[in-house]
């Protein structure tokens, strides 16, 4: 029983380490340098640069709404004068995060369902005799269904299709060259749910007249949410008229990096712009185009259509964000890991002193301010050979 009592009493005692001072300049300097390095790392890197005292949130909830404005007038031999508004050249027109702006096109008006010659540009549509045009077979990568006749006048199969088939060539100069001056209004709302913090890229002090007249630039109008198309393309390092002729793809990256320990007015978006398709001149892979039709009915109730092959610029708006706010838990973890690093240094210096320094126990005895009992303990632990 007495034994248990002594054990419980000993639990209430505090056990501490005994320190010895080694009067060794080299190991002393090494240890201080290590301490300085660890302190520099903790204060400079962990606390100041990485803000290790903050709880962070990387995933944001976000919404993007876009609106384009601007008009362009085109004059083509097939369709005459045409005034293009945003409702015509933006696809889809409902303000999506990813949208396409028509800058050039091939127009094939008044197509009706009927029988006509396949285009000579389609290899599978060419023929020398009727045997090359198997009836009912669709023309691979072509415009219609073969009727079984080879037309000598064109050297191509007769097809059942929307006639006449597309025959125009892509204009070298973009027809909607004025698209350079179109403007995009980007509304972006973000929310960091962990911190219950929300913000928009359209600052609260902006009014209608400022939005109607401002244009983003990285010096004077850093937070204006209106972007001129020509500027956007030039910031990617490309020429607008070149890209407008063949088409391309541009990425707009909105980056939110918010320190929520500061005022919310300090949490603002940063924009960057990049070309997403690889710009290989004279290559089949460069450019961006697709086709669509606009359908009409004549007074007799018969359908006809205008086919458009459109070239243009596709815009992808990408949002990235992270926020941080002071929290005691990451602060304690950061300090704790610093203290642990300091402990590793002390251990390493002990090992260097005992095993790697060119000295024997006598000289250690000279360096260490230790008494006979401590010397005996070192002996017992076998630190000397
Ligand atoms: N692409 C753009 N270029 C320049 N200003 C724009 C553009 N899109 C919107 N704006 C202007 O920004 C302000 C806010 O636009 P919002 O769409 O919220 O309002 P709106 O009254 O419906 O705009 P509007 O009727 O002029 O299209 C308006 O003054 C609008 O004219």
UniProtKB/TrEMBL annotation:
The answer to keyword Transferase applying to this record is no
Q: Which GO terms describe its cellular component?
A: plasma membrane; postsynapse
Task: Name the predominant localization.
Answer: membrane
In this protein, the residues bearing a glycan are 181
Gene of origin? p2rx5
Q: Where does ATP bind?
A: 67-69, 183, 289-291, 309
Residue stretches spanning the membrane: 29-48, 332-356
Keyword annotations: ATP-binding, Cell membrane, Disulfide bond, Glycoprotein, Ion channel, Ion transport, Ligand-gated ion channel, Membrane, Nucleotide-binding, Receptor, Transmembrane, Transmembrane helix, Transport
Q: Which Gene3D superfamilies match?
A: atp-gated p2x4 ion channel, atp-gated p2x4 ion channel domain
The name of this protein is P2X purinoceptor
The protein's organism comes out as Cyclopterus lumpus (Lumpsucker)
Please name the GO terms that the record assigns under molecular function: ATP binding; extracellularly ATP-gated monoatomic cation channel activity; purinergic nucleotide receptor activity
């Amino acid at each position: 029983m007495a034994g248990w009592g002594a054990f419980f009493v000993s639990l209430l005692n505090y056990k501490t380490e005994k320190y010895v001072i080694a009067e060794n300049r080299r190991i002393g300097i090494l240890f201080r340098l290590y301490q300085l390095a660890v302190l520099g790392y903790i204060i400079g890197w962990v606390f100041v640069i990485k803000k290790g005292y903050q709880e962070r949130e990387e995933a944001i909830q976000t919404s993007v709404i876009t609106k384009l404005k601007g008009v362009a007038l085109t004059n083509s031999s097939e369709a005459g004068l045409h005034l293009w508004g945003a409702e015509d050249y933006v696809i889809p027109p409902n303000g999506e995060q990813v949208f396409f702006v028509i800058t050039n096109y091939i127009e094939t008006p008044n197509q009706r369902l009927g029988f006509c010659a396949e285009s000579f540009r389609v290899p599978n549509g060419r023929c020398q005799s009727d045997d090359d045009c198997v009836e009912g077979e669709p023309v691979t990568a072509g415009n219609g269904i073969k009727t079984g006749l080879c037309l000598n006048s064109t050297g191509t199969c007769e097809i059942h299709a929307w006639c006449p088939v597309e025959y125009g060539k892509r204009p070298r100069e973009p027809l909607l060259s004025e698209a350079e001056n179109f403007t995009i209004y980007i509304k972006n709302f973000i929310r960091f749910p962990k911190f219950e913090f929300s913000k928009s890229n359209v600052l609260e002090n902006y009014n209608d007249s400022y939005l109607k007249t401002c244009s983003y630039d990285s010096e004077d109008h850093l937070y204006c949410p209106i972007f001129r198309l020509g500027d956007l393309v030039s910031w990617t390092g490309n020429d607008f008229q070149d890209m407008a002729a063949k088409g391309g793809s541009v990425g707009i990256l909105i980056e939110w990096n918010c320190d929520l320990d500061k005022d919310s007015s300090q949490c603002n978006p940063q924009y960057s712009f990049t070309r997403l398709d690889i710009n290989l001149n004279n290559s089949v892979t460069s450019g961006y185009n697709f086709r669509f039709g606009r359908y009409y009915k004549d007074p007799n109730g018969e359908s006809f259509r205008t086919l458009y092959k459109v070239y243009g610029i596709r815009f992808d708006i990408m949002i990235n964000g992270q926020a941080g706010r002071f929290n005691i838990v990451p602060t304690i973890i950061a300090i704790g890991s610093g203290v642990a690093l300091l402990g590793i240094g002390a251990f390493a210096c002990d090992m260097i002193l005992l095993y790697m320094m060119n000295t024997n126990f006598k000289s250690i005895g000279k360096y260490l301010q230790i008494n006979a009992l401590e010397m005996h303990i070192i002996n017992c632990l076998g630190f000397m050979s």
